[in-house]
Design brief:
The complex is a heterodimer of chains A (about 325) and B (about 90). Chain A has about 325 residues and is of the alpha/beta class. In chain A, a hairpin with a 4-residue loop joins strand 7 and strand 8. In chain A, helix 2 runs parallel beside helix 3 and helix 4 packs parallel to helix 6. The model of chain A has no long low-confidence stretch (mean pLDDT about 90). The chains are: A alpha/beta (about 325), B alpha+beta (about 90). At the A-B interface, helix 1 of A face strand 2, strand 4 and helix 3 of B.
Chain lengths: ~325, ~90
């Protein structure tokens, strides 16, 4: 039995080559009790509740994904804890031996929710936090939830649940990075940050306006010694794992190569997951390296974390460029 | 003696091998095909003695070899926090 970091690569490579849906991101609702400024879900999606997958449909989906080799499942939203069947779904996923992760804003986690999640043996909870009380509450739309979120994290810790705090450092919380880092250390939870903001799924670029200026990103990365590893493999630079071993599913049961890539592969209301997953030819188009002409000639190629989702959302083409990616690549170039 | 897989463990069989994620630190483990055979028998509720018997029959190995393989593998799984004694 081996236990090495290389195992992660091995599992990734096997599932990538065989197109096994190793990692499923399941949006189970668009409803949310908060209104975060950078949210990628278009505002008019929030009220669409008719046609959401019902409990048994999600269970059937999980069963199929498990039988195809899926190991990790993320329940996300909206706010997944707003769904009344969330515990039933987690319990079902655990019985299928999935590694279950919950993405939540944390504001609905009280003592009994934490206890229930622990009883269900959830593997990890990831919570979004954007700064101190004033900054966080303002960023999530003016709701007074900071104290509840922190209390929720403590309840989860009391139940020995693995917790990660996630944030996007942006124009409104740049000065909060140190606070968050120290705060998480004090709480004894993991902390991860990003600075990339994506457009809404309908192409609305508004969230990206919050992205930090290049100078600030550079200072952030220099301080925390982040760097981007260079690789000479052009294919790996251009092609991500969307539709290879990653799949995104929205509350209506529509399948996407990734939730960041709103290119519909099919709907499980019309066909089974396996039928859509095994027969879709999206990955063939996607992997056709000849189509990435612009990228091959781009001076920023070596520093670009190419995301077809961002390209698609911005320009409706998988093979075009993205202004956000270009900005990020320039930053990495300057860092190198 | 019977063992059971801890409820917080995640695992999946891929290509005759089982990938296991432990709950302590989310580490990934991989067991080969013989290990997978033993692991699946533990999952199905067989006791140590029956697993040895199954291994002898399925893999055409001596009892002593099978006995020591199963014992060693079970000890390793316990050490890694993947299985525990089943009190039932």
């Amino acid at each position: 039995m081996r236990n090495k970091k290389s195992l992660t690569d091995e599992l990734f490579n096997i599932t990538y080559k065989k197109r096994i849906p190793l990692y499923t991101i399941l949006e189970i609702t668009y409803s949310c009790n908060l209104s975060c400024k950078h949210c990628y879900i278009p505002n008019n999606y929030l009220d669409k509740k008719n046609g959401y997958l019902v409990t048994n449909e999600i269970k059937g989906l999980l069963k199929e994904i498990a039988s195809l080799g899926g190991l990790y499942v993320v329940f996300t939203g909206g706010e997944p804890l707003l769904r009344k069947d969330i515990f039933e779904l987690i319990e079902f996923a655990k019985k299928l031996n999935f590694y279950v992760i919950l993405f939540t804003n944390g504001s609905l986690i009280n003592k009994s929710v934490a206890k229930k999640l622990s009883e269900l043996r959830i593997n990890r909870v990831e919570i979004s936090l954007y700064g101190n009380k004033e900054v966080h509450n303002s960023f999530v739309g003016g709701y007074e939830v900071f104290d509840k979120v922190v209390e929720g994290i403590k309840f989860l810790k009391d139940e020995n649940i693995e917790v990660f705090v996630k944030t996007v450092i942006n124009k409104e919380n740049f000065n909060q990075h140190k606070f968050l880092n120290n705060f998480c250390k004090k709480l004894g939870v993991g902390y991860k940050f990003d600075f990339v903001l994506t457009p809404k799924n309908d192409g609305n670029m508004e969230p990206t306006e919050l992205m930090l200026e290049e100078k600030k990103v550079l200072s952030l990365f220099r301080e925390y010694k982040h760097h981007k590893e260079k690789t000479d493999d052009l294919l790996s630079r251009l092609i991500c794992s969307a539709s290879m071993n990653v799949v995104g599913i929205n509350p209506f049961g529509e399948l996407y190569p990734c939730l960041q890539l709103p290119y519909k592969l099919g709907s499980i209301k019309e066909k089974s997951f396996s039928e859509i997953w095994l027969n879709n030819e999206f990955f063939k188009i996607f992997k056709d390296i000849e189509r990435y002409k612009g990228c091959k000639e781009c001076e920023l190629l070596n520093w670009c974390n190419r995301c077809p989702g961002l390209c698609f959302v911005e320009s409706k083409s998988l093979f075009s460029c993205s202004s956000v990616l270009k900005k990020v690549a320039k930053i990495f170039k300057n860092l190198s | 003696m019977k063992y059971k897989i801890k409820p917080d463990i995640a695992y999946r069989k891929i290509n005759d091998e089982i990938f296991i994620v432990d709950s302590k630190n989310s580490y990934l483990h991989k067991v080969d095909s013989v290990g997978s055979f033993i692991f699946e028998n533990i999952k199905d509720g067989l006791d140590e003695e029956k697993i040895v018997k199954e291994l002898v029959e399925s893999y055409d190995v001596d009892f002593e070899v099978a006995f020591s393989d199963v014992k060693e593998f079970i000890e390793e799984l316990i050490k890694k926090g993947i299985i525990e004694k089943d009190a039932k």
